[in-house]
Amino acid sequence: MTLDTKTALWLVQKPVLLWLPRLMLAAMFVESGVDKLLHWAAYVNEAAAHGIPLAPLSLALAISVEILGSAALLAGVCLTPALLALAVYTLIVNFFYFDFWAMVEPASLMARKAFLKNIAVAGGLLSGLALTLRTRIGEAKS
């Protein structure tokens, strides 16, 4: 048994260590989705200003992904599609909202930092996806 396997087995026996990262990731998406619902008109205008096609429909889809994806993440159901949807959503939105390469200082600096933060969030989601798939493959082999 490798150290990696021992670590994985130890983590599986500590549910809080698997649930806490999900809670931390979901918090951002839940807050964002609820804020979009509460300030619908402002977000539709902002989305249109950023060149997002079919802004009202895109916003409705964004809210659905954020809230339903977070709920699935927290409940531990449909983890694979939820993690994948949240990661893809984060990457797509990132390129529309934080196009730092088309900005000038000082706006480009903050946009670049937000862009990289979102890349890290998507990476965390994809890591969760990899862990979920690895666990399923391990269970299938048993």
Outline the secondary-structure elements.
Elements: H1 3-12, H2 15-38, H3 40-49, H4 55-75, H5 79-97, H6 107-141
Description of the structure:
The chain is mostly helical. The chain has one domain. Helix content is 84%, strand content 0%. It has helices at residues 3-12, 15-38, 40-49, 55-75, 79-97, 107-141. The radius of gyration is 18 Å and the shape is elongated.
Considering the chains and any ligands shown, give keywords for the structure.
142 residues, mainly alpha, 6 helices, 0% strand
In short:
This protein is mostly helical and about 140 residues long. It has six helices and no strands. The longest helix is centred in the last third of the chain and has 35 residues.
The SSE order reads: HHHHHH
* Rounded mean pLDDT score: 89
Q: Can you tell me the residue ranges where pLDDT is under 50 for at least 5 consecutive residues?
A: none
- How many beta-strand segments? 0
* Overall body shape: elongated
Number of structurally distinct domains: 1
Return Rg in Å. 18 Å
Helical segment count: 6
- Pairing-aware structural class of the strands and helices? mainly alpha
